[in-house]
Design a protein that fits this description.
It is built from 14 helices and eleven strands. It is an alpha+beta fold.
């Protein structure tokens, strides 16, 4: 356990008091949902740290001369600051402000993304890479005042990420913006420093159960629950195998602490053909569709709400148009049949 004392901050507001590593006071209006839900300080830090299994994570820690390389201390090395929210840790005795700790540059982007050996010539400095979570090699880059995350992947993973983004936009769903850039996918920070993103794991832990998540979202608002159903629909027709509680969540108003909406749909690179082409294009025994059907069958509220959602019909032309926007090759006929068969199965449900 981390035995530090100080405050978890929201910008320059003290929102959680920590004494010797223990949570002793929580501002339930402004504190991270993690603490509002009674969770501890060390696990909050660990959840903000770069995945230690990434090869370039080890290189980053080496070049930055980190003495303590466990997850909690890795996050503390940059005051637990991330790009996608304004929470951070201010230890007792530190005279720091939000302006001083938030990230304004990143000279270790190439090291984090592709293990660039020239990065070892850079002097250690504050970098958002120590709190850039996820299992794929990635980095943050500041472009014309906006933060963009670049992520590596093979052609199938890159195609899947971009295709699902374009299809979601065609359907009118709220999607995080994705683009192709010289062999990588990049996505713009959807918080833009104006809202806080909170992964739903802060509330649900590792519980991915559709009904449990839906029921929680219904306690917040019907609109949030509807957006969650739309996300599950897109996951189902596009065979997303990796929807977990750290790749969807909520946006909160920084000034009021109020939950605004579900975050835009993002992180779809382990879907569709990412791990190869599924053998059953007909989708007669499709496990991902079965999960969705079982959920709607067991949760009457979700089933009736889903019926009211006006989702445009996906057409062959719509899919072909999405594919044409992606500069990575894939088997178009398979993609068209696979997605349309998924849509038909849900329609006939």
């Amino acid at each position: 356990m981390i035995d530090s004392s100080g405050y978890v901050m929201s910008a320059d507001k003290q929102v959680v008091r920590i004494e010797n590593g223990l949570v002793v006071d929580v501002d339930k209006q402004f504190a991270p949902l993690h603490f509002i839900n009674g969770k501890d300080f060390t696990s909050w830090l660990e959840g903000r740290a770069i995945d230690s299994h990434r090869a370039n994570s080890r290189l980053l820690k080496k070049v930055l001369r980190l003495a303590n390389r466990d997850d909690a201390n890795t996050a503390l090395a940059v005051n637990a600051v991330t790009i996608t929210d304004n929470y951070w840790f201010k230890a007792d005795g530190e005279n720091l402000t939000w302006t001083e700790v938030k990230f304004n540059e990143n000279v270790f982007d190439n090291l984090a993304l592709k293990g660039d050996p020239d990065s070892f010539s850079q002097k250690p400095s504050r970098t958002p890479e120590l709190t850039n979570i996820g299992s794929f090699e990635k980095c943050w880059r500041l472009i014309n005042g906006d933060w963009w995350m670049y992520k590596s992947g093979n052609d199938n993973q890159i195609f899947s990420e971009l295709f699902i983004y374009h299809l979601g936009k065609e359907l009118g769903f709220n999607m995080a913006k994705y683009e192709y850039d010289n062999g990588y996918v990049k996505t713009k920070d959807f918080t833009d420093g104006k809202v806080n993103f909170e992964p739903i794991g802060s509330v649900m832990g590792d519980n991915e159960d559709y009904s449990d998540n839906f029921n929680y979202f219904m306690t917040l608002s019907k609109d949030i629950a509807v957006d969650y159903l739309k996300m599950l629909y897109l996951d189902s027709i596009c065979y997303n195998m990796d929807r977990h509680t750290n790749n969807y969540g909520l946006l909160r108003n920084i000034e009021t602490g109020k939950v605004i909406s579900l975050a835009p749909n993002y992180d779809n690179n382990i879907a569709l053909i990412a791990n190869g082409y599924p053998k059953d294009v007909s989708r007669k025994k499709d496990g991902i569709l079965r999960f969705f059907f079982e959920f709607l069958d067991s949760n009457g509220t979700a089933r009736e709400l889903f019926k009211t959602i006006d989702i445009p019909v996906i057409t062959k032309g719509m899919i072909a148009e999405c594919i044409s926007k992606i500069p990575v090759k894939a088997e178009s006929d398979f993609i068209i049949k696979f997605v349309l068969n998924g849509q038909e199965k849900i329609k006939n449900m």
